[in-house]
Amino acid sequence: MHVYKLIYSCALFLFGTTIAFAQTNSGSTQQLNNVFTLHNGATIILHANTSNAAAYQWYKDGVKIVGAIKKDYKTGISGMYMVRAFNTQGCMSDQSDEVQVIGTPATTKPVIEIPATVTPGIDTLVDLMISLKSSNKKAVMGESFEYELKVNNRSDLTAHQVEVKYQIPSVINLLPIKQSIKGDFEYNPKLNTLTWKIPKLDGKASVNLNVTVKVLHSGIIESTVHVKGREKDPIMANNVATENQQINGLKVPTVFTPNGDGLNDTFMIPGLELYSENEITIINRWGNHLYEKKNYNNEWAGEGLADGTYFYVLRAKNASGVWETYKGYITLLRSRM
Hints:
By secondary structure, this protein is mostly beta strands. The chain has no helices and 23 strands. A hairpin with a 5-residue loop joins strand 22 and strand 23 (323-332). The radius of gyration is 33 Å and the shape is rod-shaped.
């Protein structure tokens, strides 16, 4: 079977800039090789000549004009202007040709630039991605481990009002968060929900939150996290992440010492008495069955066997009526350790 990947190029637009202009007073506007001279307080509208872009960013003298994210940009201030476009995947085009605007002193007073305090509109595209990772895939009932929640801003533009929600499964308990994090978080005990709020996340930046949980019951933990932001997200598939983890209720030891000293003389499996039924099989390295028992009660002492490593298959029926299966090895040592 062939697997094909769709690769998005981030240089999807290569476009020039056409110009339309409107005078606010009775002055005139001249054009010469992408140079425009304004008179008598006139302004000019710069127009990005591309039809398939989803968002734009204008620049003056090589510096991003904050908030200038529309297809048209109006100015009366001298400088070198150019624009970039973004497609629906958040990819950025090459820059357009530069256009020089020359204003007379009369045109320098009007406030035309958008203030730096203005944030991009909700029609701006920002691709946020969330991931979830367990620090201990072999955790057993009663143990604690961490989940790492990580948010990536895959776009060049800044994301605002980023919010992560984690619906905590009932089989785990959230422990106090000690990490110093970016943003704020709050826990709702009634809904068993953790909300993490990040006011601003720069383009191409990432931030993570580690939450510690304690396993209350055995079984499968299905943890799901969601992320959203103020801006439109072109790829919603990566705004949710799920981690499935099997939590076993038994921690089977790997060694026992049947030497008659009264300590660790049998293959003892702590917590096995909490299961209503069980079956155990002991096998040697050639696959021969050496010991089999239903409802095993921690009594096997390796009678008649030499010191060495043996293998077991244990099935145990938990309180939910589900059979859990454990496979591993046990080392038999009669000499004192």
